[in-house]
Design a protein that fits this description.
The chain has helices at about 5-10, 20, 25-35, 40-45, 55-60, 125-135, 155-165, 180-185, 190-195, 215-225, 245-260, 280-290, and strands at about 85-90, 95-100, 140-145, 175, 200-205, 230-235, 260-265, 305-310, 315, 320-325, 330, 340. By secondary structure, it is α/β, with parallel strands linked by helices. It has a nine-stranded mixed beta sheet. Strands 10-11-12 form a three-stranded antiparallel beta sheet, with no helix packed on it. The mean pLDDT is about 90. The structure holds pyridoxal-5'-phosphate and iron/sulfur cluster (SF4). It comes from Geotalea daltonii (strain DSM 22248 / JCM 15807 / FRC-32).
């Protein structure tokens, strides 16, 4: 067993393990964790400096997760847009394949809260069905492995998936989305990188949300991937009270460039049930984007994007894409549709 696998076994999953560490009553936390599982690596837990800080809020269950029953579990209609279980085909030329349903840390703001940590990993049977679907759709040239976290699969399982994809000639690029660089950096072994290199062009998207997540260990993990010739991008989720501050966001983007990670997306929080307490207003997001553009390297500016409900797709939010109409915003989708968005109060 690898060191990363041993470390995964020592994750904190029982809320009462937190009480001696932080001297707190974990009854509330336990109630929440029954519905939305908790899992925190010892490494990530070690980044917490005090209860309530930016790391804490991302991983410790909060009773506020229950105070959001108005939202839907799957506002993006991912299940509806799924031609075979585990595959989302929303755009013309690319698909998302949910190859894993587990993660090293369960983020409290996760957009796939409905399934991540709750269901079993994709079976081999459905894996064949997904590969057959992709093989039968020559328009698919870009396959994004997501989940859950694809890097929680063992190397040989991941290798089977990648080699299956590489046998399909029209698949040009493969992308992998992972948060292990942030939550379990020892997962990025030299063995993993050696295996990945065989299937180029491979792109990896990481998921850093706060400057404190950029440590010597996470920098080493990213360096290994970059040295294997893998271009690295980053997807940040805009989170209230965590990174919804122009200075914090600017520092995060600058530190990402230092570890050879290009900021790709800054995501407006999806309207997913159980995550309302993390949602910021779009005005705040636009302000943060204005705080980046021109004030620091152009390379440090991601696209600020919202994922429209019902699977209409991601739209970059720039001042000219947004029209104000009374108390709501009108946003143009990538196909020219206009969607009405009810913004939250300015924070
Ligand atoms: C985000 C996403 C993609 C990839 O979008 P890009 O803009 O190409 O990065 C593809 N499919 C689905 C369903 C997505 O949510
Ligand atoms: S790593 Fe990604 S998929 Fe996993 S819990 Fe966090 S946000 Fe969700």
């Amino acid at each position: 067993m690898n060191r990363w696998q041993k470390n995964l076994k020592t994750c904190v999953t029982a809320p009462d393990e937190l009480s001696p560490l932080f001297n707190l009553d974990t009854e509330d936390i336990a109630q929440v964790a029954k519905r939305y599982p908790m899992r925190i690596t010892r490494y990530y837990l070690g980044l917490i400096e005090r209860p309530g800080d930016a790391i804490w809020r991302q991983c410790i269950p909060d009773p506020l997760e229950f105070e959001d029953q108005a939202q839907m579990e799957d506002p993006l209609d991912e299940e509806l847009l799924s031609p075979v279980p585990g595959l989302i085909h929303r755009y013309p030329d690319r698909v998302v394949w949910l190859v894993s349903s587990v993660c090293a840390v369960y983020c409290r703001f996760c957009m796939r809260k409905r399934r991540v940590g709750c269901t079993e990993a994709t079976e081999t049977g459905t894996r064949q069905a997904v590969l057959a679907y992709i093989a039968n759709h020559p328009e698919i040239r870009d396959v994004i492995l997501s989940g859950g976290d694809p890097f929680l699969l063992e190397d040989d399982v991941l290798e089977e998936i990648l080699s299956g994809l590489r046998q399909i000639h029209h698949v040009e690029i493969i992308r992998i989305g992972t948060r292990t660089t942030v939550t379990l950096p020892e997962r990025i072994t030299t063995g993993l990188c050696r295996m990945l290199k065989k299937f180029h062009p491979i792109y990896v998207n990481t998921h850093f949300n706060h400057p404190k997540e950029i440590t010597a260990a996470s920098a080493r993990a990213c360096a290994r991937l970059a040295d294997a010739g893998i271009p690295l991008g980053n997807q940040t989720v805009l989170l209230k009270g965590i990174n919804d501050d122009p200075q914090v966001m600017k520092r995060l983007m600058q530190l990402l460039l230092k570890i050879r990670v290009k900021p790709y997306y800054l995501h407006q929080m999806d309207l997913v049930r159980g995550t309302a307490h993390f949602r910021t207003s779009i005005d705040r997001g636009l302000q943060i984007m204005e705080g980046l553009r021109g004030h620091t390297s152009g390379l440090a500016s991601p696209y600020y994007a919202i994922d429209l409900e019902g699977g209409k797709g991601k739209v970059p939010l720039l001042p000219e894409y947004v029209r104000r109409d009374d108390d709501s915003l009108l946003i143009r989708s990538y196909r020219g549709e206009v969607v009405r968005y009810r913004d939250v109060e300015k924070s």
